[in-house]
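Thread: Modeling a multi-component assembly for a lab meeting

Hi all, long-time lurker, first post. My supervisor asked me to bring a structural picture of a complex we are working on to next week's group meeting, and I have zero experience with this. I have the sequence lines for every component (734 residues in total). Could someone generate the structure of the whole assembly? Inputs are pasted exactly as I received them:
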Amino acid sequence: MYITRRKFLNILTVSTAACATLLAPITTWAAWASKAFNATKLDDAYQNLFGTTTLTASDKIVLKLPKIAENGGAVPVSVKTDLDSVETINIFVKDNPNPLTASFHIPEGTIADISTRIRLAQTSTVTAVINAGGKLHSASQEVKVTIGGCGG
Amino acid sequence: MNRREFNRLLVAGAVAGIIPKTGFALSQVKPNYNIPQKGNARLLHITDCHAQLNPVYFREPDVNLGFHKALGRTPHIVGEAFLKKNNLSKNSLEAHAFTYLNFNSAAKEYGKVGGFSHLSTLVKKLRGLAGGENNSLLLDGGDTWQGSATAYWSRGKDMVQAANLLGVDIMTGHWEFTYQDEEVFSNIDDFEGEFLAQNIKLTEDALFEGKQTHDEDTGHVFKPYIIREINGQRLAIIGQAFPYTPVANPKRFIPDWTFGIRNQDLQELINAIKVDEKPAAIILLSHNGMDVDLKLASVVTGIDFILGGHTHDGVPTPVSVKNSLGTTIVTNAGSNGKFLGVLDLNLQDGGLKGYEYRLLPVFSNFIEPDKQMNALIDEIRKPHLDALQEELTVTETLLYRRGNFNGTFDQLICDALRHELNAQIALSPGFRWGTTVLPGEAVTFENVMDQTCITYPETYARDMLGKEIKAILEDVADNLFHPDPFYQQGGDMVRVGGMNYICDPMAKPGNRISNMTLDSDKAIMPNKTYKVSGWATVGSKAPGKPIWDVVASYLRSQKTINISHLNSPVLKNIDNNPGIVL
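Re: Modeling a multi-component assembly
Sure thing. I ran the full set together rather than chain by chain. Output:
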């Protein structure tokens, strides 16, 4: 069936309302990960979420982020990968007061492709960490937050 | 044909003399515009004319610094080093066109440059030599609808008319987006060519609200590319608008659009075009700026030519950039109507067999103006002539803008701001457009508009802490000197009046600016308050009068103008840098 993007977005809104019960397990999990979300240093957030700070840089992660944010308060980010057995996709903003910004659980059989908006307090490196098959894969990029002006 | 075969052909072409040796030097005083076509498709390229319908003087910079990978690399070379790099002889017409050397005397000798009537004659001649309009395309890299009083007063409409008459086939944009979004759509409706941009998308919110798009599935606000057939060969032209428009200019005029370099999207688009359209060559019509284009050419594969603008670099010798699958040729065609790029392609059997590129300086005195275009320009200007031609004062000093840190016209604007708004310090944006006034000439209201007319011209005067001033300077310095071009916005350093500082472009972000002092040599203290005036605020509208009223009022009170000192920083780490003359 062909479906336009606008219709799809409308459907999404409708289904969000119908999904309240589905959200409940995530709330439970967030409580469990509160130590990681409350960490104020990047390595502490890694340690609390993964039990290690050792990550392997991967070219199998497609991380899409602006280089210079149009609005630091809502920076669009998308992460996708064709790695097998993806369990979680996690987004860290190194120089935010709390670096761990979002954590997505990817149920088995789901395409690992997420997008959201994150807030940057200042210019920072943003890192996506994917837990796939028990291994931690990462990709990073700097996002600049600027006062703007003075262009060409 | 794969990329490796293409490369081999390029090399073979160079040996066989299809591809010219770098640079072209003419020692005779008359420019040669009789350029016979090589190959079978001719692309003409203009960019960043900034709405200059009439011929102008335009001085190229004497400071255009490059650091890190850009050190000593095109376009970061000025003066005699530029001549040497591009095989141009001293005191030639080309030396005057491409460098600031002997500007005053050469400008008097060779006269003004550009102008749409003269450009029109040249375009017709070069298209004629290529077998007519069907065998050629005229591409415009943007910054066409902004930069003159008449463009400002007509909201860009006068330039749409002029571009239509000039025969522009395809364009992209930057300052075009400093009008309201609905005005942009209205101007594009009137434009008879194609307006392309692969890197402008609707925000998700705007998509949800059903705002105008070219394609609601991809979110593209404008058509991303177009296929044009020339002599039976298919050419793909992709548009790349200025990626940081909502950062460098006010977002409030175009709240529904989101930009960015989008190199991953571009790669996906190119891959799809190759499969679906099977073009003989792919051209990116870009408003990225030259450093961004050079990096883009190294990370994105499949583009044959990037015809670039934004940074206003007149580059006679294109730069060949290798990437993982082949080679991309990067050009930049200057500004203010001063240059016309001529790219001849030899397209055979669905592939590119060779090319020849020239960047022709448009010396108006040597070109018969086109009558029809002249009539249109007269019609556009007639209602405004009295205002435009008002002589405000006379200048004893050459007034120009280009240069990384300051220009005499910017110093004049800063002087006017401080004087009229009673401020200790003035800040003025590092734009790269704005025409030049020769010593001894009257400074007209039109000259002031050429330097200032933007859609957010309001001025301000307010108290700022010393550390706030430093933060502004640091922020702009990072946009200019970030080691990675994808984090640069183009443009130059914010101009300052009434203060001085030391700048180390090689230092880390936040550490480039030091020793800030007032003109009195008194140190600027981080927690002390200073009265600062300025204009062109991006975040929200400033409360004061438009900058042109402030400058005009100041000039009317001055019998003559003499700029003897520039508030230009003391620079560190610039030894042996060919981007500056010490």
